[in-house]
Design brief:
Layout: H1 4-22, H2 27-34, H3 38-45, H4 53-62, H5 67-71, H6 80-87, H7 89-93, H8 103-112, H9 115-130, H10 135-149, H11 155-167, H12 178-189, E1 192-194, E2 209-212, E3 217-220, H13 226-242, E4 250-251, H14 259-276, H15 279-289, H16 297-307, H17 311-326, E5 331-338, E6 345-353, H18 373-388, E7 394-402, E8 408-417, E9 425-433, H19 436-441, E10 451-455, H20 475-503
Parallel strand pairs: 1-3, 7-10
Antiparallel strand pairs: 2-3, 2-4, 5-6, 5-9, 7-8, 8-9
Helix pairs in contact: 6-9, 11-14, 12-13, 13-14, 15-17
Amino acid sequence: MLKEADIVKLIFGLKVQHLRQEAELSYQQLSDRTGLAISYLHSIEKGKKYPKADKIILLAQALNTEYNYLVSLEPSKKLRPIVELLRSDFLKIFPLETFGISTTKLIELLLQAPEKVNAFISTVVKITRNYNMQGEDFYKAALRSYQDLYDNHFPELEKVARTYRQEQGLAQAPLIETSTFEQLLLEAHGVRVDRVYLAGSIELQHLRSVYVPEQKTLYLGPDLNPSQERFLLAKEIGFQVLNEASRPFVTRMMEIESFEQLLSNFRASYFSVALLLPESVMVSYLEEMTSWTAWQGNRLLDWMNERKVTSEMLVQRMANILPHHFGVKNLFFMRFFTGPDMKKILVTKEMHLSQLHAPHANQLDEHYCRRWISIRLIGRLKAEQGLNALQGPIAGAQISRYWDTPNAYFCMAIAKPTRENPENSSSVTIGLLLNDQLRDTFPFLADPAIITKDVHTTCERCAIVECEARAAPPVFLKRQRRRSSTKNALKTMRKQLIGSTKNG
């Protein structure tokens, strides 16, 4: 992450490099003029060194420029887009190093780019400002890209979880109980668990957990079910074992301060689920699913309850294992949230592997397609809650054909009321791109009981006629059609006028 001092050095170095190249001076020639070592000039241009005033005077004289121009943060017109990028939040917050990208190398490439590329950079920065994109947006997007880069499977973390089970004598344990996790935290890591404090605080009782490092105490919130408690306890073990330099202390994260913190949270969560659902166990269960000849949603829920894991943990674990062990890499994961009236539906978590699949989140405050199994299942949950006080979760499956594209997805979804307020609901969905390989892997995809539906991203953009689930008119589509009609009318007008002029 770039600091302000780094940006000052980079801007200075960019100016020196640009002026040297414009003057067609080699490093040796600039060294001869200033008496500065070639290696030192290299370090200046790469933003690693910032010279003292006497050396800046020498550089200004050799490059035929003013001292004040070199030390100011105002660039020339050609350098302005790059400097705007440097001074924007993007390079301050985006974790280039995580993706193996050197900031100085990136700047060198940008410096050599033609003006059109610089204009593009400037456009990106302006879009970022106009849409009020915050650091958290970049962090989350970077994490999704990081997961995609590794097909959402991290052998190092799988190994750490597997080794921990072996070292603690739990390798053969089919299920690790809550009491065992508490004992491990206390005896192996010196962390005690408190279930009283948060329950007694009106302002904090909605939190799931808070870790106070000074006391080495993990405070758990009230009304957690056993699956949630086991996840949080195992996650804290993950933080202790992985010994991350930057970590959050509250679940869920209220404010993401850095990408490193978000990545630390992800790694500890991954460790937790790998501890609760070991890789070999998950592979074995998915292999069992390959023998199903019909979709068995209740069987999936029964297995989830036997293992005492949450629906999100199960679906996320599938997204870890399917790409690596079964070659199913075209998939997406989404989590939806809605209130009692289902008027506002939000995507609160999203991950895509191999491409940006459809459906996907939309940040334009539009109405998500109610034909998605993710949302239909929430509607069914609410209906059953009203009829027989069902507490959930419930599972469903659907083949979703994405409108006006060749793509179709097999989507498995699980919906349940939220812990904080049972009148609110959430669902998690894993979508697998339908192809011959997937059909060969899971024969139950031929089950005629699995509903097939045409879906879209949002109602505002949808051309499906007489949709029974439409929540808003297709206003975006109407605008497109109006523009198209106007363009055609203008073409006709032009032809008519040119024709009449020729005839006259």
